[in-house]
Amino acid sequence: MLQLFTLSSLGRDFFNIKMLIIVLITIGLITLMTILTYALEHQANQHQAPTWRYLAHGTEAVSVLVSMILLRQIFITLNSGSVISWTYATVQLTVLLFSLNTMRNLAVEVINILMPLFIYGQAIWLGHTTQYLPVFMVMTVILIGTVIYIAHNYQALIANQWKYLGFQVLYSGTWWGVIWSFHPFKLTHTLFIILGFIVYMWLIRLAVRWTQKFFDEVLTFDHQVNYDELTGIRNRASFDTSAQEVFRVYQRRNMGPVTMAMFDIDHFKNFNDEHGHLAGDAVLRHVAKFVDLQLKQRSTHGQLFRYGGEEFIIIFRGMPALEVGQVMRTIQRELAAEPLEFEGSTLAVTVSIGISELQATDHSFTDWFVRVDDYLYQSKQAGRDRTTVENRLLTDN
After folding, report:
1. What CATH number does domain 236-394 carry, 3.30.9.10, 1.20.1250.20, 1.25.40.10, 3.30.70.270?
2. Which residue ranges does UniProt annotate as crossing the membrane (predicted)?
3. What is the pLDDT of residue 204?
4. What is the rounded average pLDDT of the residues 247-266?
């Protein structure tokens, strides 16, 4: 990574056309890393499963290493096989600090902590001096402490611009101390290269802020359009889009089972009439939150939608109807066992469920939907708090 440079090249490294190219490439790479981080974190938050979180963090860490390797290859191409450059070292540090600030996960923190040990080991293997090993050890300890502090106090740092700047200087200063320990250079150059690093980070922050603002606006718009304001789950518009896509893909490509479950809250009108509309809203939120959490804890990957009023629909990809029925019957029982406490009243909440798998004979989405709706009606006719799967009332036996 941080292969070192001749001192005479200091000024030329920072003020030439190659530097401009590298700055633009670095900004581009970091913008892509920001987009990747947002996308991965969004998916992890959607699924709320540890596996997704680990996958997101692992992929983010890999993106940091890939970006550093790409920058190395670009420098080699631009400098006829050499990476001996102040600019090269500075952009590598920029990528490391950016990842620490933006991704904020353990894998990236570990990369930052291990990198000075890797660089020093590589330098010694290439024949550099070990004369200043104590300097390396002191600088590494300070750097590791700085990395840990930044990783765990980022929000406090960005709230105080001077503190944030101070830790940038400390981070870059200790890194150059690590470098000096195996490749001594004139310490009078340190201020200049730290200033260069801060300028890089300032440019990167501008690019990242623009990207973050764009993503925040996109995610806000997506949430407003596709999510129900009251319950926080996907709404009817999102269901209409997703359901038609699921029907088209699974029906034409024979991708395995896909099952729809529809349920509504039993005697919902009574909650509004007896306890007021605020109670009705509380019941809707209670049911949506409870079912959504249960689906995620069971790793069903079922998509929950509020269809309208007190009706909800779940799409289960890759699960046959009977398996879905068993999952939903369990959730149904557990929901009934957890009444809602509302303004001193205990509200017993139950749901009725209809379930059907997409069939080869379904010529349209409506065929499938009407069948599920009919099974829901059968559950209500059977006394409510029931589950009907493929025209058969599911029992607990």
Report:
1. 3.30.70.270
2. 20-40, 52-71, 83-100, 107-126, 132-152, 164-183, 189-208
3. 63
4. 85
